[in-house]
Amino acid sequence: MSGGNIIGERFVAMSFGESHGRCVGMLVDGCPAGLQLSEEDIQGQLDRRKPGQSAVTTQRKEEDRVEILSGVFNGFTTGAPICMLIWNKDADSRAYEAIKHIPRPGHADYPAMVKYGGFADYRGSGRFSGRLTAALVMGGAVAQKLLQETLGIEIVAYTSEIGGIKADSITAENIAQRYDNDVRCPDPAAAEKMRDAILAARRDGDSLGGIVECTTSSLPVGLGEPIYASLEADLSKALFGIPAVKAVEFGSGFEGSKRRGSENNDAYYMMKDGKIVTRTNNSGGILGGLSNGMPLIVRVAFKPAASIAKTQETLDVSSKSQAKLAVPGRHDPCVVPRAPPIVECVVSMVLADHAIRAGLIPPVLKKKGSA
Amino acid sequence: MSGGNIIGERFVAMSFGESHGRCVGMLVDGCPAGLQLSEEDIQGQLDRRKPGQSAVTTQRKEEDRVEILSGVFNGFTTGAPICMLIWNKDADSRAYEAIKHIPRPGHADYPAMVKYGGFADYRGSGRFSGRLTAALVMGGAVAQKLLQETLGIEIVAYTSEIGGIKADSITAENIAQRYDNDVRCPDPAAAEKMRDAILAARRDGDSLGGIVECTTSSLPVGLGEPIYASLEADLSKALFGIPAVKAVEFGSGFEGSKRRGSENNDAYYMMKDGKIVTRTNNSGGILGGLSNGMPLIVRVAFKPAASIAKTQETLDVSSKSQAKLAVPGRHDPCVVPRAPPIVECVVSMVLADHAIRAGLIPPVLKKKGSA
Amino acid sequence: MSGGNIIGERFVAMSFGESHGRCVGMLVDGCPAGLQLSEEDIQGQLDRRKPGQSAVTTQRKEEDRVEILSGVFNGFTTGAPICMLIWNKDADSRAYEAIKHIPRPGHADYPAMVKYGGFADYRGSGRFSGRLTAALVMGGAVAQKLLQETLGIEIVAYTSEIGGIKADSITAENIAQRYDNDVRCPDPAAAEKMRDAILAARRDGDSLGGIVECTTSSLPVGLGEPIYASLEADLSKALFGIPAVKAVEFGSGFEGSKRRGSENNDAYYMMKDGKIVTRTNNSGGILGGLSNGMPLIVRVAFKPAASIAKTQETLDVSSKSQAKLAVPGRHDPCVVPRAPPIVECVVSMVLADHAIRAGLIPPVLKKKGSA
Amino acid sequence: MSGGNIIGERFVAMSFGESHGRCVGMLVDGCPAGLQLSEEDIQGQLDRRKPGQSAVTTQRKEEDRVEILSGVFNGFTTGAPICMLIWNKDADSRAYEAIKHIPRPGHADYPAMVKYGGFADYRGSGRFSGRLTAALVMGGAVAQKLLQETLGIEIVAYTSEIGGIKADSITAENIAQRYDNDVRCPDPAAAEKMRDAILAARRDGDSLGGIVECTTSSLPVGLGEPIYASLEADLSKALFGIPAVKAVEFGSGFEGSKRRGSENNDAYYMMKDGKIVTRTNNSGGILGGLSNGMPLIVRVAFKPAASIAKTQETLDVSSKSQAKLAVPGRHDPCVVPRAPPIVECVVSMVLADHAIRAGLIPPVLKKKGSA
């Protein structure tokens, strides 16, 4: 609807705020009543996303303490809209005034300038800043807790590639340790190389991109709707809402398009406990847009960060003359290390929305006082 | 909304029908009044999609003649909902009764069985059939004409890879001839190899996948909304609504995630006529979710067709015993050759929706009797 | 969304067609799977609405046989969109060509002319015709059956006033006979007077208006959402979608606004079976926008039919000169007698939508083969 | 969507907050860029609504100073979501703990208790409080300014009846003075009587209801969409979102349903300046759901305030025994005097939404730097 700041049908989230405005916030409507929820439940994911955590991230310092303004009473959600926000404290807008007519290559500056007729808040990319992903995390952390508590679904995302360096060995065990290193890669050896590559790129005044992979425990069968609200459709829509994402694939994805059907189809069999599963998971857990009871597998490609210190060619649109630009401000040399909690949260919002649509999560979790 | 059969906010389309039911149709709400429209405007794209056209497609024979039931008066759209449909005539449902408890690997059969409690129409994949893409084409053909007539936007899609065989040389000239060969690949030499590969796969009782690429003439600057209704978000949502699509990338996509920022950023410059463009188009025409005035570039990966004659392992879910299945019925050994008109139409619907949202296409195209 | 032809969030309906076009239809998305449904279930209500039934209705003769084009398989809904339509057969468009520049007082002609730039289908009021209420009946008849079969809710509407003549005695018994007389008023003596008044107005080349009242069996507690999706909000929105409706009130309505709180508040008590009820029902079954377990009471005022034979003053907007107009065509001298099935159906759609939202009706009614 | 807290399609508003929570707020998405906007533009209407203004309102003292948290930059809207809120300061929740199991007659307490399983915030009616109308005023004040600055539309609401006492003479002149007396009735003599009646009711521990009428300057022709998004449909939906509203009528409304067509139809004529108008305005400015160029006329009935000091019969739902209740807390003896600014704001939001949908207000009001 409208300005594009709303997502979801049953678990609905509307984002607000700007990078250098007063705050960044998320308003969630449709969260069932009766979910135990405090600011601490959200803070964990926000902390994994926040800037200034390590040498591989931007040096902007923000505490990013979430405040819940509504929708929670006596420690439980009430069914009313949940308004959450973080206040901006360390914004430094001085650099942006000078370049407000000089669009930075790879950023939204130029189309935003045209689209909003000069009224957009250009400071720190305004509404297009990566800082807005904090709103995604706030909404998604609520969804993530909701999925865990009601359906026992676990959602994990991790860095699988940075600057062309791929994680080698990814296991259930090392995924559990994904947040133990700066780049959030389960493979510690690859993590080390990725870190070095980011620091090298930064030294060169340059940046890197990479890939985040997200998987889940087995999903219930039948999430998603055919055609336009397929799980793939709604997940990709939400994932492309993360700045710098340029590609999304499920299961065998692009690779699978090179195979034959007999190689790519996943054969069914029944486990001893009667659960129906497939021998492989090339579908990434989704068939015909519906979850098939296997874990979700989705991969998300992030372009190299657009803000680089290296001098680039661009235009001064006010004087209509060519310009050279070394992007000022404090920036991430690679956005991937901060992306896994964001991807987890975005995926959680979509799955929560579909679980409510499918009737798997009721409007009230458990009547108060009931056994 | 609801069952997932609706897409769009201003140019809204709701699909209906089943593969072996009475018809497949599309209901479009929000098309501006005053667009000259006849069944012939839609039939062209439907003909490019229809089955039985060549040796590389299914042999089901359907005339697929579109009928417009509402919303057009005296040869022009009225602003009222446009209901369009094709009648199913050559459905052969005999094979499906026998396998209604035996889910075909790679198809929606199993999750649909669970989700709809046994009530779904399973004949020919019912609502999950590739035949439903005819609805996308009907809605999209209207959008495509609307974009051409109002903004002069051209949208072209073509096969760029099948079974791992890549088109070598793609030019504006050979793109114009993309519909001249059976596989709809602009590169005639690659097209020949692709055709042979499909026929070989079919002989082996197997199938192939591939990649369709879509591009446009320069888009107006500023289509799309930040975050959840970014052009990438809405295009990917719509494209994943095409059965068998498993990956979507824009511009340099996955490849770009391996580059440095200085390689991937597109430098701005001004053309002699004052138009602001970029030297490269790694962004695929989209920055921050907004069109930047360059052509759109999007690539869509289709998995190998799930229906294969080769025997596969699966389950009989009624007897709960393992089963062997050679999928019956008539099928495409590769869906890619029929996909380019579908991709063109799907992209058109999304762009039309956003052009209306941005105020670039008015509610009435031109007052009757005005100059 | 979009052109205003869609209603509902979970039980979603999109209307299409024109009075003198090929058909009038309704596309319903979100009806749960597993509802036994045939054309006969819809035909009953359509027959009560159809034209040419008696001396007090228009003489246009339409059979109005509904066809279900999709969404039903083996006699049950599948969860897929249900497309239903009736074909127009007795349209006589000759009269409308002559007056296409002469807006009829009380009709949408003039604003539609301006809004759609001359492209609207003006024949028989086109999209604004009372004939479009057949679409409401098709969608609503499905909802009405759904509510009966799942929650046992009965919805009844009847004429309570025509031309200022009020029904005197309305009882559960005579409500059951409401369709036994031409004007659908439960009170037979009042019905006789209403009928005479309509015929007298017709003889004078004039028309009458009136009031339809709708009530239900006890609703489940808690339907509706606070503020914008309150039951009153959504019911009124849907009811004002019926042409000629100019006022809607719930419970004591306008009358109640003259009372004191101590007179208008409904006191709670508990029945012997433990059910909590109120002694009076001034709230019309809705408090704070939520159903409170009492029957719904809503009253809907219809203006006198705008099409009258009497000469009226208007304008020829092409020549910009004053004109005299005796409206041609065949028309209802009072729309109220045909309105009760429409009101029942419209109310049913809203209640079904909210019952699904509240989780009271599941996505699949009962798994096939389950006890 | 979802929890019912969102309204609008292009000018979208989502309300949040509770009566005794931290704040009450409104998040607006879709407001065009380039509207000059400060907190003062909103404060005026909030001040007219705020409690404790006079002897006829509740004695709760709230400053209700609005803060804009996002979406405005350098004094102009940016096109990004506008988050506005007021902090709650004078909430006194002591009384509510004692009655949390004793539903107050005429309030949402009982259905809310059931619907939200005991998790709803019951303090001061929580989400169902009249205090939530402050959110409507915040969103609507932005819409009201937008309509004035772009289309010159003026929207005025005033008290026309309280406790059965009707305003006698209402003129353009005295409407302009409507906010000069405590009850906001343009007719000063009637205002005096209304005030006395409210004070008398309060002395009796009782309350009164009444009617607010809203009208506008001439609307542009063609606002509204046929059927479900008719102006009447969308206005009534929004108006029933105001607590205590039980009836809505347009133009001649219920009265008109007693007339003949020849009396109720509005005859067209052309003014000297070429403007097409009607001699009467029984349609209230709306025909077929579309504005016809005349002023809007809508009347809204408010029930007597449910909170009264007089002892009422009710239930203790925890002990399942009858109870007597004198409602504690501070309350309005009549909500009507505070309602006119709310009605103005609610009507403004709907008209702004439709003006944007109709393309009459562009996404950017005026490019910066353009003449």
UniProtKB/TrEMBL annotation, chains A, B, C, D:
UniProt pathway annotation: Metabolic intermediate biosynthesis; chorismate biosynthesis; chorismate from D-erythrose 4-phosphate and phosphoenolpyruvate: step 7/7
Pfam entry (one): Chorismate_synt
Binding-site positions, FMN: 127-129, 288, 303-307, 330
Gene3D superfamilies attached to this UniProt entry: Chorismate synthase AroC
Cofactor binding note: Reduced FMN (FMNH(2)).
Alphabetical keyword list: Amino-acid biosynthesis, Aromatic amino acid biosynthesis, FAD, Flavoprotein, FMN, Lyase, NADP
Top-level taxon of origin: Archaea
A single cellular component GO annotation: cytosol
GO MF annotation list: chorismate synthase activity; FMN binding
Flavoprotein in keyword set: yes
A Gene Ontology biological process term: amino acid biosynthetic process
Binding site for NADP(+): 49
EC assignment: 4.2.3.5
Cofactor(s) essential for the protein: FMNH2
Family: Belongs to the chorismate synthase family.
Name of the protein: Chorismate synthase
Annotated organism of origin: Nitrososphaera viennensis EN76
High-level lineage: Archaea, Nitrososphaerota, Nitrososphaeria, Nitrososphaerales, Nitrososphaeraceae
